[in-house]
């Protein structure tokens, strides 16, 4: 349905089954959860983040990450609307 299409677009799903792991902020940890979970059953590498991402989450306070995320979304929306206007 419509909700499935929205989620599919947002999380770049290519088929079913597909497992995307997200953190408490809604940021993607990995798009490849379906392969990561069985490959690391003990969870030794969990949460399977990019090392730079781990540093960011560790050292940047959640409140600042929320502010940055909202600003990024605003800029992203403006860029997308400009691109759409240029394509028309």
Radius of gyration, taken over Cα atoms and rounded to an integer in Å: 16 Å
Q: What's the helix-strand series?
A: HEEHHH
* Total of DSSP H or I helical runs spanning 4+ residues: 4
In the predicted model, the low-confidence regions spanning at least 5 consecutive residues are: none
Shape by Cα distribution: flat
Structural class: mainly alpha
Strand content: 5-15%
Number of strands: 2
Helix content: 55-70%
Largest sheet: 2 strands, antiparallel
Distance between the termini: 28 Å
Average residue-wise pLDDT: 83
**Strand order in the largest sheet:** 1-2
How would the blueprint of this fold be written?
Layout: H1 2-11, E1 21-22, E2 28-30, H2 33-39, H3 51-59, H4 62-87
Antiparallel strand pairs: 1-2
Describe the structure using short key phrases.
mainly alpha, two-stranded antiparallel ribbon, 4 helices
Tell me about this structure.
The chain is 59% helix and 6% strand. The protein contains four helices and two strands, in the order H-E-E-H-H-H. Strands 1-2 form a two-stranded antiparallel ribbon. The mean pLDDT is 83.
Nutshell version of this structure?
The chain is mainly α. Helices cover about 60% and strands about 5% of the residues. Strand 1 and strand 2 form a beta hairpin.
């Amino acid at each position: 349905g419509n909700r499935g299409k929205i989620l599919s677009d947002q999380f770049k799903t290519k088929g079913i089954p597909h497992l995307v792991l997200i953190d408490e902020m809604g940021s993607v940890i990995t798009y490849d959860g379906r392969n990561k979970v069985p490959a690391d059953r003990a969870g030794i590498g969990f949460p399977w983040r990019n090392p730079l991402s781990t540093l960011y989450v560790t050292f940047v306070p959640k409140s600042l990450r929320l502010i940055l995320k909202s600003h990024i979304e605003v800029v992203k929306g403006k860029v997308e609307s400009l691109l759409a206007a240029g394509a028309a």
